Amino acid sequence: MIESEVIITRDMLSDPSAKPRFSLLAFVKNQPVGHILFTHGYIEGNLEIKISFLAPLAVIPKYQR
After folding, report:
1. What is the pTM of this model?
2. Residue 50 is part of which domain span?
3. pLDDT at 42 over 70
4. 31 half-sphere exposure, CB direction, 13 A CA radius
5. From residue 21, how far is each of 9, 37, 53, 65 by CA, in Å?
């Protein structure tokens, strides 16, 4: 994982307003090969607009593409 992605993921998961909302794992023959995580957020200055982030997205290199 690229260092900047690690930092963004850490910051998102440590923010109480961005609690993980939806997490999915992909399996091949009972082995996890991919993961996506949706978190919830707000636009600064306008708490009425709710947004969702799709991050991080991780797939074992063998199963990418």
Report:
1. 0.58
2. 3-63
3. yes
4. 7
5. 14, 8, 10, 26
